[in-house]
From TrEMBL:
Source taxon at top rank: Eukaryota
Protein name, entry field: UDP-Glycosyltransferase superfamily protein
UniProt source species: Rhynchospora pubera
The keyword Glycosyltransferase belongs to this UniProt entry's keyword annotation: yes
Keyword terms, alphabetized: Glycosyltransferase, Transferase
GO molecular function ontology, one term from the record: UDP-glycosyltransferase activity
Amino acid sequence: MAMVKGEVQNRNQQPHVAFLSSPGMGHVIPMVELVKWFVDQHGFSATLLTFSNFSSPTQSDFLASLPPSISSVSIPLISLDDLPPNSNIVTCLCVLANRSVPQVRSVLQSLHKSNKLVAFVPDFFCPDTIPIAKELSIPHFLFVTTNLAFHAFMLHLPHLDETTTCQYRDLPEPLHLPGCVPLWGKDFIDPARDRTSEDYKWILHLAKGYVNAEGFLLNTFENMEPETAKAFGDGKHGPQPAYAVGPFVRSDMGETDEFGCLPWLDKQLDSSVLFISFGSGGTLRIEQIREIAFGLEESGQRFLWVVRTPSDTVKNGTFFGLGKQDSPISYLPGGFIERTKEVGMVVPSWAPQVKILNHKATGGYTVAGTQH
């Protein structure tokens, strides 16, 4: 990163960088923390581009709280009406980013004219916008909000696609990537499990677009993935540099506690509460909601559960505004809240996650489908 800073400082004493985040708080939050890092630690000014599609009041409030040194631009709504109604979120986000190229070009051209842009950093759903930076002769780095192992997989996916014909779950041997644990096909990321699906076509499209980036910024750190980081450092994953610039943890930006989660936690024993949430876009089926409820009730475990409206038809349905008229609480088994009121708390849709995770009563968490 010192190299990047030195290069841009030679061009402009007050360098301006444009960032593009795909929708979803799981992407917006780490991107904002990256932007703040550029501004606070390196003296940059910045503009953050976001999408109007799939925006939420929570996202709008979050962006409104940004410091004055960070401006934001919302890309106007882009029609996705021609997509099948059961399209998964990966397809929707990729199509959205692909169709946004004219709007992003217009914003970047304007910023470059008025601010002399020195770099453009889109997130990993948006490699289709990288050619715009090339047109403007602006350095460009793709921001990957996940880890080095995922990044290594994406870099290798085009080669795997060219050299195999079977479904990956039928591969006779695991995939061996330098510095990574062996990965069986059945354990590939969900969009890559069915090579006939639209999600796979788009995830492969993203992977092929990665080669256009000059380098990558990743929300991880070397001590978390030492062997994978070494493999990248040895050039075993392609010619583009990959910088581990994380971890980016959201600071307390005035999160509201509408339902009194923190006072409830104050009454619990240290490390006694399981915090349950499945991400800003994750959507469970109705049956899964009920099974989690039954499991919690039977376990007697103290819990704080952020419940979002379920869907039996659309994965990641929260992105699509599901449940705007439905209370997620209504999908819980009858009498569940009353029966568990002594040990549990249920919160609809959103809770102050950073404060909850920092609370001494929180002893474990299940976030975005991963248990810790």
